[in-house]
Design goal:
Elements: H1 3-8, E1 13-15, H2 16-20, E2 25-29, H3 34-48, E3 53-59, H4 73-91, E4 96-102, H5 111-118, E5 126-130, H6 137-152, E6 157-161, E7 174-178, H7 181-193, H8 195-198, H9 213-221, E8 225-227
Parallel strand pairs: 1-7, 2-3, 2-5, 3-4, 5-6
Antiparallel strand pairs: 7-8
Helix pairs in contact: 3-4, 3-7, 4-7, 5-6
Length: 230
């Protein structure tokens, strides 16, 4: 556990319909798999309600196994895009999936990129982006990018979702989502699509990233969290 999780455990629980309020849903993900880890159950339940859903992935996630000789970065990037699309097919088959393809660890945070992404987002959408206190440069950059977008698009409501910040000591005002049982099951299937990150599929880089079973289980057993801008 962490101070963040201890703190957020007392946060109110909200139904998905009450969060969405009949608005389109756009998820800005730093990497392929963040959409599932942070918002997979929400995506599923939103899609089941007929909500227009969109996932925008900022980076190609190609830096996860830098020492691999069989999985060079371009191959990892192609595979991770396939994994993203497969996961979204499980969660929200009709979702618009936008692949920006920026290099891993170089998610944009500039005004020109914000204008580009802002033009993709439907009117009056709820925009969910990674939290600025997630300890990863791409998560921080996407949070900054989302703030720029919100400044350009006053019709869009911005909120955040934590990934790695869940396991740190930061605190924020937030809510917990009440997901359906079917949504949790779908989230597990979607997470399994991200094989490069969740399994030892890339076998020749022992120091490459693989999410621990403990962390995977956390994201499947704990409520998804939505944080208000601070």
């Amino acid at each position: 556990m962490s101070r963040f999780l201890d703190h957020i455990a007392d946060a109110p629980t909200i139904q998905v319909a009450d969060l969405l309020q009949n608005r389109p849903l756009t998820i800005l993900a730093p990497h392929p798999d963040d959409e599932t880890l942070g918002c997979g159950a929400l995506l599923f339940d939103a899609a089941q309600m007929g909500t227009a859903c969109q996932v925008i992935c900022a980076t190609d996630g190609a830096a996860s196994h830098p020492a691999s000789r069989s999985w060079f970065p371009a191959r990892i990037a192609r595979e991770r895009e396939c994994e993203l699309r497969a996961a979204c097919e499980v969660l929200a088959p009709n979702a618009a999936v936008e692949w920006l393809g920026h290099p891993d660890c170089h998610a944009p945070r500039d005004a020109a990129s914000a204008e580009q992404v802002a033009a993709m987002i439907p009117p009056n959408a709820l925009l969910l982006a990674s939290w600025c206190k997630d300890p990863h440069i791409d998560h921080e950059s996407c949070a900054e990018l989302a703030l720029l977008i919100a400044g350009m698009r006053p019709d869009v409501e911005l909120q955040f979702y934590p990934i790695w910040g869940r396991f740190c000591d930061g605190q924020a005002t937030g809510i917990q989502l009440a997901a359906s049982v079917r949504a949790i099951s779908a989230k597990a299937r979607a997470l399994a699509c991200h094989r490069t990150q969740m399994t030892s599929m890339i076998f020749d880089d022992p120091d490459g990233f693989v999410m621990t079973q403990e962390h995977q289980q956390h994201f499947l057993s704990h409520p998804e969290v939505i944080l208000a801008p601070s």
